[in-house]
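User: Can you predict the 3D structure for this chain?
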Amino acid sequence: MSDAGGPYLSVDGDALNSWSFDVFTVGENKELFPYVVRMFHEMNMFELVDQFKFRRFLSEVEGMYRDNPYHCFKHAVDVTHTTYLYICAVKEQVSMTQVEIFSLLVAALVHDLDHPGVTNGYLIATHDNIALTYNDESVLENLHLSRFFSLCQNNEDANILSAFDESTYKEIRRSIISCVLHTDMAHHFKLVSRLNELVALGKKNNIINGSPMKSTTDDERQLMLNVLLHCADISNAVKPNELCVKWASRVLEEFFNQGDRERSRGMSISPMMDRETTSVGLSQINFIEFVIAPLYVQFVAVFPALNGLLTRLIENRRYYQETYENELADMTKGDGTDRSPEKESLRARFRTLIEKHSLRRFVDESDNLMKAILSLPHTRRSSATRSFNAMLSSPSKKKTM
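Assistant: Here is the predicted structure, written as structure tokens:
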């Protein structure tokens, strides 16, 4: 089904296979099309779906993404690209089938289709029709899936599922639904727990540390697909720092836009969504420590070929430590209050993070800030196990831009 030419051949393969690939430098959305086509081509997906139909599908998908700061078509392509890199790194270890790869890449591409730029919580609190339609359960994720399957059903020219027999179609549909539903952050800590169990079982049965995982059950294989997409979806903190900062800025702007809506409606402003009080540095520190690190430490334990992600996690945590210390310094200049205890507390948390997850080998110990952090005495912190909701409800700090 694949043609011999096409615009994807003009794509720089080295750039596409780099963790530094930046969707923002490519240009307009449609200029990203060849990169997406090239990813599907490299994975031999055009043995399963007609390439010209896929291009029509891609054009329809791009038009269905809204112009949000974060949940936009560029985010979809970025997540698809990250998923592609994860597949390249792990597909032999998990012996992924073509249908599994196809399902995962398509799920990545459509996982935020028609996202309105606000959270599930906002839609539920405002009694939005979307929340009413999906009974307050994974509201956005169900919306994205509905838009995707409706597109395929109602537009034959863009129906990338039309060539599959009924049995394969059911398998693909079931897999895509599971993957996209598990991008709902409500499932995050359950996924981390499942990974913890898998790592413990793997250590016992020698099925991790790069060993092939051919004997896994169907449920375990779907778990791996769910984890791969979820990790790709929240991968900004394990990207090169320039990309991490770009995406963090965009997600915060989208949060602040929601906070503005909440203020205008007289609602309580959601945590991290008040542009007047939210600390950029602290918000990212909390996200890295309580959400990203527990997930990615176990993810890399299962897939050690991806251990470079932990180096970037430490680098970005260090960047936001410095960012927050600069915020504290600016606040002290403004009101004269000594905030050194808060700075030292955050440094101690960084040290504990490194020790708890055995991350010292990923630290640049020649860096002066890291030297100071590593020289701190070890202290246990009970907050390491508190929930994401508890973290979100903690007081925010004055933001400086």
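The chain has two domains: 7-217, 234-401. Residues 1-5, 381-401 have pLDDT under 50 and may be disordered.
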